[in-house]
Design goal:
This protein is 37% helix and 18% strand. By secondary structure, it is of the alpha/beta class. It has a 6-stranded parallel sheet, sandwiched between helices. Strands 5-4-8 form a 3-stranded antiparallel sheet, with helices on both faces. Strands 6-7 form a two-stranded antiparallel ribbon. A hairpin with a 7-residue loop joins strand 4 and strand 5.
């Protein structure tokens, strides 16, 4: 590990007034979560879908809730229980600690739908989940704008076939099939009300950062789905901002980026040792 780069990252974090934390699927890998990198990575986590020739992009589509709800809830129900049962790694706690030490605090912008930043202690008002959350549900037929918590929702999934057994989660308003409040590919029925409220909190926080030293710590956000990387780079335009991009394969960035080609946990713990 390049200790000069780690030291440089630690110095700018120590001097920051505020931290913006960006996180993609790579952030969860050190907690033991799959990152679905490429079809092979996805099929390693879900072997029955390889036999069916179904890729992640194909599976993460609302059409399955209409055409094959057993398969749809098998996939999302398994993930719901996996995320619920997994403990976020120590890097989450370090980011929370560093944020709490800053005069203007910290904010999280993540494409992950696992809720692990809240599980690690970040307030709901400190997080934007730009692709929604598996911990919240909505009607698959959008009978209204309702979004409700998935706490208490149990899905019985056969781990051999990754199919769920009925009864499936249902909408409390119309009693028809429910689905996760997650933005999928080709998704025209995602209810974005909750995420829009998160964006409003984020914009208010950002508005208070004029003339402040902002450090953006981005972990495990790749170029395949560039939502998080794009937000990090927009934040650089706020003025006195520095980007620390932690990614074992895609750590490159604009001039001035501190590129750390490592996993999230190892890089964050190395920075903490310097701090």
């Amino acid at each position: 590990m390049d200790q000069d780069l780690i030291k440089q990252a630690a110095e700018v974090i120590a001097d920051a007034d505020a931290l913006l934390i960006g996180a993609g699927a790579g952030m969860g890998v050190d907690s033991g979560l799959p990152d679905f990198r490429g079809d092979k990575g996805f099929w390693k986590a879900y072997p029955p879908l390889e036999r069916l020739g179904i890729s992640f992009v194909s599976m993460a589509n609302p059409k399955w809730f209409k055409n094959d709800p057993s398969l749809a809830w098998g996939f999302y129900g398994h993930r719901l229980h996996l995320y619920r049962d997994t403990t976020p790694h120590n890097g989450f706690s370090l980011l929370k600690k560093w944020s709490d030490e800053k005069p203007s605090g910290g904010f999280v912008y993540t494409s992950n739908v696992d809720g692990h930043f809240q599980k690690a202690g970040f307030a709901e008002s400190q997080v934007v989940e730009c692709h929604g959350s598996l911990n919240h549900l909505q009607c698959s037929l959008t009978c209204g704008d309702g979004i409700w918590s998935a706490v208490g929702t149990e899905v019985n999934v056969d781990l051999e076939s990754f199919r769920a057994a009925a009864p499936f989660p249902s909408c409390p308003n119309c009693q028809r099939l429910a689905r996760p409040n997650v933005l999928m590919f080709g998704d025209w029925h995602w209810v974005e009300e909750r995420t829009n409220r998160q964006y409003a909190h984020y914009q208010n926080w950002r508005a208070g950062l004029r003339h402040k030293k902002l450090v953006i710590i981005e972990c495990g956000a790749g170029t395949a789905v560039p939502s998080v990387r794009a937000n990090s780079e927009r934040a650089l335009d706020l003025g006195e901002a520095t980007l620390i991009r932690i990614n074992p394969r895609e750590s490159h960035g604009r001039r001035g980026t501190i590129s750390l080609p490592y996993g999230a946990l190892s890089a964050l713990e190395a920075i903490e040792n310097e701090l």
